[in-house]
Amino acid sequence: MTRAHLQPAALAAAKRRPTVALLLCLALAFCLAVLSIQSSFFAAPGAPGRRLDLDAGDVRELAGFQSRVQQCVARRGLGLTADIIDHCKLVLKFPEGTNSTWFNTQFKIFEPLEYKYDVCETILLWEQYRNMTTVLTREYLDVRPDGWLDYAAKRISQLGADKCYNRTLCDELLSILLPAKPPFHPRQFATCAVVGNSGDLLKTEFGQEIDAHDAVFRDNEAPVNKTYAKHVGLKRDFRLVVRGAARNMAPILKGSSDEALIIKSLTHKEINAVIKELPNPVYLFQGIVLRRGAKGTGMKSIELALSMCDVIDMYGFTVDPGYTEWTRYFSPPRKGHNPLQGRAYYQLLECLGVIRIHSPMRAQRVEDWSAIPSKEEIRRAHAAAFRLKKHETGQPVELGPFSNCKVWGTVDPDYGPVSGTSDMSEARKNSNYSKWELLPLEKLRREAQEHYIQMGGVSLYKMDGNKLDDLVCVRHQHSSS
């Protein structure tokens, strides 16, 4: 409508209120300014002014990755199916008629037949493990705020106090298994076998295949001898044990003096007395409390292995349909873990490229890993999930290995690498630490050297809790530099 068509009264009113148009113009200008600021705030790195369009970019990337995971579960899940909820969440379901045998006495229910997972959170968690140190070190306690006062006390049983008010006493109790800095390096090994204790191992002959790996991880009192060699192999590199099993390690470790023993939870005087007589390197696993769908020492062994290995092959876990009881290959059946939830979570990890599952049913067919997303697909999905998480929390979108570092510290690289105390037995003094702690950088495989250089020699540690973004990061540089 033109000015000539306006009614005389309306035209007169417009003349009397010239400020209305001005206010509208100012309001429009303000809105444009706000949009400009928002666009700048959500701009992607390297592209100033371009709004981070999660719907068009990252959400589409994650949705495509979810489809790949769904296809992988369909091909490798032995009856499991994945129903996609959105670009991050899915539900793994067991087929109708699955026998739920495990009864939760706390909630008075049988184990459910479907489990919801957040793939974005899961991929962020497990890719983070590839850059982390999972062995407790002196530098971690020194750098972490109240590391000695608060955290060290949590790692010592029967201390008689909730804090290390007596630093000398706590140091004495921990020093026998406390290296000054990480004894192992990320990507130190190309292939690793994590061997559980399931009785399913007796249905297979994976022994030679297990021994062909660069490193083998075992749990608790699992025997390694000629009796079970064709089922579980003979190679021995790492053994993760709960503190109860740590007391019984002398006869178990006999014949393998360079098998590194890693205690899962706590130490105390009784365990230390055993350690002092062992000819094996002994360390303490850094306790990490994170909610996930599978529990137990086997899961912790995967965490430990992922911090050192490129490819993890998993053996001896009950992951095939038809579970009726928890069995071990070297002892009678007993009550134990909830099998269905564990099986579902391990299947999710395989389809996220974290592990490769080997089991009796899978042993009967030619292994084909093409269903598992490629490293490039995983890298892109990880980057998209990272940006999405930062967007949701309102944090700057800065990709990089140190984005989640909440605490920084610096130590001298010549900060005494070998664990131990002056009162060790002769056997302990001759422990084969040179295989681990004294290994120079130039003797590491190329991928481990490249990772060390990329990280600038910085070690990453996880703090307690369920957050992804609370790492302790330690630089290694000479005090004179």
Automatic annotation (TrEMBL):
- Where is this protein localized, as stated in its record? Golgi apparatus membrane
Q: Name one GO molecular function term.
A: glycosyltransferase activity
**Is Glycosyltransferase a UniProt keyword of this protein?**
yes
Q: Which UniProt keywords apply?
A: Glycoprotein, Glycosyltransferase, Golgi apparatus, Membrane, Signal-anchor, Transferase, Transmembrane, Transmembrane helix
Instruction: Classify the main location.
Output: Golgi
A Pfam family annotated for this chain is Glyco_transf_29
Write down the membrane topology.
Single-pass type II membrane protein
Q: Which residues cross the membrane?
A: none
GO terms for cellular component: Golgi membrane
In the record, the note on similarity to other proteins reads:
Belongs to the glycosyltransferase 29 family.
Query: What is this protein called in UniProt?
Result: Sialyltransferase-like protein 5
Q: What is the lineage of its organism?
A: Eukaryota, Viridiplantae, Streptophyta, Embryophyta, Tracheophyta
